[in-house]
Amino acid sequence: MSCCDLAAAGQLGKAGIMASDCEPALNQAESRNPTLERYLGALREAKNDSEQFAALLLVTKAVKAGDIDAKTRRRIFDAVGFTFPNRLLTTKEAPDGCPDHVLRALGVALLACFCSDPELASHPQVLNKIPILSTFLTARGDPDDAARRSMIDDTYQCLTAVAGTPRGPRHLIAGGTVSALCQAYLGHSYGFDQALALLVGLLAAAETQCWKEAEPDLLAVLRGLSEDFQKAEDASKFELCQLLPLFLPPTTVPPECHRDLQAGLARILGSKLSSWQRNPALKLAARLAHACGSDWIPVGSSGSKFLALLVNLACVEVRLALEETGTEVKEDVVTACYALMELGIQECTRCEQSLLKEPQKVQLVSIMKEAIGAVIHYLLQVGPEKQKEPFVFASVRILGAWLAEETSSLRKEVCQLLPFLVRYAKTLYEEAEEANDLSQQVATLAISPTTPGPAWPGDALRLLLPGWCHLTVEDGPREILIKEGAPSLLCKYFLQQWELTSPGHDTSVLPDSVEIGLQTCCHIFLNLVVTAPGLIKRDACFTSLMNTLMTSLPSLVQQQGRLLLAANVATLGLLMARLLSTSPALQGTPASRGFFAAAILFLSQSHVARATPGSDQAILALSPDYEGIWADLQELWFLGMQAFTGCVPLLPWLAPAALRSRWPQELLQLLGSVSPNSVKPEMVAAYQGVLVELARANRLCREAMRLQAGEETASHYRMAALEQCLSEP
Fold first, then answer.
1. Backbone torsion region of residue 612, taken as left when φ is above 0, otherwise alpha when ψ lies between -120 and 50, otherwise beta
2. pLDDT grade, residue 66 (50/70/90)?
3. Residue 233 three-state SS
């Protein structure tokens, strides 16, 4: 068998490839070419490699490409099997006068022919060849060698066929194909364009697994594509805009790519473009914004102008899409624009190290206000049949981001929309699994099958909580929210979210957004306690909420790193206890005693005496746990002290309980051990309020305070009310 004969036999693979769209019936092929049956018989009966070579050559000569359909290919496979191709792929000895890759080329050609059958493409004997086939993509050799090129084409044919099977991508990734494809593309080996196409398919099918197996190689491809994008002056830059989002990693985009990506986008978006040219650029920018925030945009004049341009274009696109009723909305593009608007909102509200100057912020806020007006207009048209569509979810998300920072503008429109928002949030809360699925669909709308960067919350309520927190302070919006049943919904939501943080659940895997959501709920309830106390007294949902707060706080105050949430729970519970003081649950029950003991722990451990060099007297200082978060904590602490003071005369059992905790004695001891000048007036007022009410409520408290030099301490701190109270019998 000569080298030329081997090459001729190899054309069988090409016949199989060319015949992929030709499917005549088998009996028709047999009637036109009865000789083929004899040669197939000879192929089946071949006793050694030479006879198989000869039979393959006869089959090749007996058929034309157009004569091979799927059934004929299957019969050729039945005659050849996998044993012969296996030996061809692994043998290292070629016939005299033949290059060493010719036998492998024939083996790959046979596999390419067989892989045209989807059933064979997923056969274990094909799958276990993936590592060998992957090495062919980067093997060195003469780039002009026709046989080598043919082998590489056949290799891509095999790998592409495997990728098209249900579990094929997983096998390719495990077999090292992703790294091989990256290297083939970066080396501009023959067929590198096929390598890129196959990479795109694998990333779309199994992005996370691809990055896990071949992160360094994929990052190298991303760097290469980014450089090409920055340099491109022709239409290829628009093609790269569509490719690049698929190659952004699920963690973070390497900083070395930022400059090239931003420069390429600036060149595109700064030009006059048609929508088909602009939209992929907006999508890429949105993906970068979601993954990196504003880190990919350079600091300085050029960066601020670019960011302003991005947000401006996004707002224009949103208005064009949503203001015209009946216009077909390109939901993927508008969702990408929402992501860019969120970036604009974040930068406009950032006080330090913002990319934008104040005049730019003012201008962008005005532009975004108009775009948010268009979003509200769109949502007002949404009927019940569309509420579960992912684009509606995306629209509520951007509105929630806006309301979290700005509620004074568009107040009339927002109030008009509030009933819809409450109904929408309730619908998604009651169907939580569908809400989470909607979040994933929104991520898909926003360009990628997976979402790097901050996770998109899977429930509409969490999106709306910050805005509702602001709105419950205002009379008009608060009345609408109460009328629509928002407080009851928020209580149910709080209790459901609280379950996720309760003992028995692994809180280490919970996203920070769960705890932030609980804190925001507490802020809303605090607003309602202050502005609508009658609601707290009459709505049964708040009784359930109070019970949960009482049973939860004792364990919460003991948990490391959750002091801010404990502060919210303690303060809210104390304020509600003042309104619900006649409730049986607060009449000295074990739960109520445990709650107030935990509240005292929170209030009493905030400050300590700290020695100062060169001074005989210590100063009052924040305790270490409180010091780092006091800016967020102090308002809650002072409100909690005030609320505790108000509870003492309403709950007769509370003063004796406080005395048993030794809080009043230890508080006087602390004040007596530090310099009065180190205690701020507002602290003095807070401490005096608690001490006076405890002293008035209980004779034993007064006696204990006197024994702790209470009168002397009151005199030093000019606590006239406490001094007078302790002077009485």
1. beta
2. very low
3. coil
